[in-house]
Amino acid sequence: MTTDPSTHQLRLLLVLAEELHFGRAAKRLFISQPAFSRQIRMLEEHLGVALVERSTRRVELTSAGEALLSRVRAVVDAVEELSGAADTAAHAHTDRVVLGSYMSSLPALRMFLDRLRERHPGPEVELRGVDYVEQVSALLEGQVDAVICHGPMPEGIHTLCLGTEARFLCVHDTHPLADRESLTLAELADLPVIGFSPHVQPEWRDFWAADPRPGGTPVQYTHHAATTADSSIAYASLGHGIRFISESCRALMPRPGVRYIAVTDLRPCTAVLAWSASRPLTPALSSLQRLLRNHSRTKDTQTPLNTNGGWWYMV
Q: Rounded distance, CA 225 to CA 241, Å?
């Protein structure tokens, strides 16, 4: 054994023991199947014993895997207990929330929170940038207390709706459709969508690609592995494909070489405050939730906004 196994690898084994299927286990943890398999093999190398019997038909734990499973679970539980105790201790004497959000929205979000706290007392907020992958992983790994992002979010993460927004098509400005005021999804059926990173949550990717389209037609993706709106819009500006964006994104990211066009039958999106269901709710995060909940009640959260800003726009 050259190095100790990581807690991450032990968690993967526990999920695999429940699913007994590499594909399902990988999807549940929002990672690719090859990456999942590599981590299990590395765990076996670290421990010096085969844990899994693999075949084309089924996956089973070896006798050694079965024997070690209870100890693996005990180690993971102990690490999670330690992490929770450390998190509680870290927040015991501070009124601070570490809040993740997309890099493109951080300036507007800072201004929004500052104005909000001028009207009502609220906790100190430390903003950190996250991308489409980290909006889930940073929460589950405890790197941030909460994230402000666009849904949908997976199971195990709680959300507070902050507002709904229309979604728009992003396409390069020389495209034949670029001069249209509005479009339908049927008119976009043959246009590829800028590809997402394989580590992006599948349900989130499908929603933001409108996949499948009306009638069940699957979407064609480009070879890109985008994790941010900025990179997606840049690829769209080069004519590599299209991208659907939120009203906030349209307001915050005017870019040369692209047009943002309304899509009349595209469902609106929801901006949310998200936090892990498995971590203790700190007083500071509870305070921020109340602040944002009171603000969202002043908006009609069932209707897409018609401002030049977004859900964070303050009258």
A: 13
Report the C-alpha gap between 98 and 10 in whole angstroms: 27
Retrieve residue 96's tokens. 């601070």
SS (H, E, C) 193-220: ECCECCCCCHHHHHHHHCCCCCCCCCCC
Q: Which one, of 266, 217, 272, 273, lies nearest residue 243 by Cα?
A: 266
Write out the chain's pLDDT in tens, 315 residues: 446 788 888 999 998 888 888 888 888 877 888 888 899 999 988 898 999 998 767 789 999 989 999 999 999 888 877 876 666 565 554 678 999 999 989 988 999 898 888 888 888 999 999 999 999 999 988 899 999 999 999 988 999 999 899 999 999 999 999 999 999 999 999 999 999 999 999 999 999 999 999 888 899 999 999 999 999 999 999 999 999 999 999 988 889 999 999 999 999 999 999 999 988 888 999 999 988 888 776 554 444 333 445 666 644
Q: Is residue 93 exposed (0-12), middle (13-18) or buried (19+ Cβ within 10 Å)? A: exposed
What is the per-residue DSSP string for 26-45?
A: HHHTTS-HHHHHHHHHHHHH
Among 182, 181, 208, which residue's Cα sits nearest to residue 194? 208
Measured at the CA of 229, the angle between CA 223 and CA 235, to 5 degrees, comes to: 40
- Which residues are 182's β-sheet partners? 262
Q: Confirm if 213 and 184 have CB atoms less than 8 A apart.
A: no
